[in-house]
Queue: 2 jobs
Job 1
Amino acid sequence: MVRHNIEFDAEGSLLRGWFYEPQPSASPAPCVVMAHGWSSTKRMHLDRFAEVFAAAGLAVLVYDNRGWGESEAAPGKPRHEIDPWEQIRDYQHAITYAQNHPDVDPDRIGVWGTSFSAGHAFVVAAIDRRVKAVSGQAPFVSGRATYANLARVHNRVVGPELFAADRRARAKGEPPATVPVVGTDPGQLVGLPTPDSHAFFTHAREELDPTWPNEVTLRSIDNFYGYEPARYLPDITPTPLLMIVGREDGLTGGNLAASAYGTAAEPKKIVFLPGGHFAAYTGDGFTRASQASRDWFLEHLTR
């Protein structure tokens, strides 16, 4: 598998990633643009998905979100902050980079996302007609509903006062408040408080990306409250939509995703996996999820 390190400008942020040549090479080839979810880096299993796609004859562009992994934050912006709309625009910058690559057919671009970035993939597919097929697994579809499940201390939903205080402090020049991404103390606010989140990121830092910081800005939690990617699902048509859902997903809500899927128009397809939010990254879940996305892109990008 031939993989090149790449970098490209995204309105002041230098984003870094990998470009996979299609195997066998069929230049110019369709290209799948990929990024990871909330606080994750490309080293956390994305190479495995990219290899499946590239082995099927698809070029693949994988990159770290701004301020995470090997990508830079914009000047004056903190690292480890997550703004969904900045990340959506970065998908669009990545598409442009892919279109200008000599090995890529600029008219056959697919977008893939997982968890938080699955929501981005759906939004990008709805607003950017350069996207000719989209696949999102374990998708984040509702900020309001997810916030109610996640932003809790001692099982009580955190009120807006905490975020307002951080905004006022930052406006006065104080450093951004941060919280852990995962933890086990129910009295501490963390970004992703579920047991399977703690298990996933603990293993990922030990085995895949030792540089991953268990830290995210407090504003990142505030940012996703008003983010409702499900509202864009009806606008994806006529771009073909694939949604992959964990039946027991208690993080972003498999039931929320399945319900939102019903609002999308054809052409579309939904695939259910046994297990929770992280089932698609390893084992049989990975095999089924990666092959479903691969087949979807082959069907709609190689005609």
Job 2
Amino acid sequence: MSQSFVAAMDGGGSKTLLVVLRQDGAIADIGRAGGSNPFDQPLWRETLSGLFARLPPEARAAGLGLAGFGESSTLNQRQRALISASLPNIPLSLTNDVDMACTAAFAGQEGVLLLSGTGSMAWATDGQGHHCRVGGWGSLFGDEGSAFWIGRKALGLVTELLDGRNTQDIAFLEPFQKALDLPSDLTRCGPALLEWYGNLTHERSAVAALARIVARLAEQDCPVAIRMMREAATQLAAHIQTARRKLSRPELPWSYAGGTLQSCFLREAISESCGTPVAPRLPPIGGGLLSAARLAGWSVDADWIDRLAATLEHAGLGN
């Protein structure tokens, strides 16, 4: 008997991941590419098309979670047109990447999924067909608590310190200079920072990457970094609290996804007001595979989900 496959795609602001799963539970292919958010990635079509071309003809279904989906009717039409042309003959689950991550974290059950990566957003479901979203407005309007938001604050503080407008937080400057490989001499640091900025190929992703520096400094007890991360935690906690209020479910469990929330410091700070999070049952890509397997008519139960989690973890795709 020939093997059948399902596929899932997690299309984020900074990176896009494709996983093809065989019916026997083995991973047949993993594809990676740059970001595919149509709001700020001019080559999003090429990114998606290149990954779609890797799907085997035996693919029975696909689960797609795409950044930006559901946020603009014009862009949605363009995304749908590309997907229809690329995957014309298989059933699809097409949703926002955060909705897919919520499905993954709770294996389709109730909960609030908080995502903080390049952007930030919460997606909540009560398990009875009602759902809501909070945030996800993008870097111009919001994305509070996201990696970009933290990185932008760090850069703003550095410029204040270089100018002398801020003299209270000078302890932040030296470790940040070292982490970004900037000169320690103040007269050379400013030009070097502008040179760094001028050579960026994708500003949003590069600034978001600076959040890792802030998180590491916070874990090393840098007071200024701790303050920044606590500010981010306050903003992200408001996403969870608002989602719970919208669904009139103040006790909904919450879970997490995205690179920013890999910081234990940040998760613990959010827990102070929102309670301890539930560890995600599956990584975000697992939500797409779960949806696709169900569309394909595969037998999906708790044991299957556990095996999928172990398979993704072994492949380096775990939470």
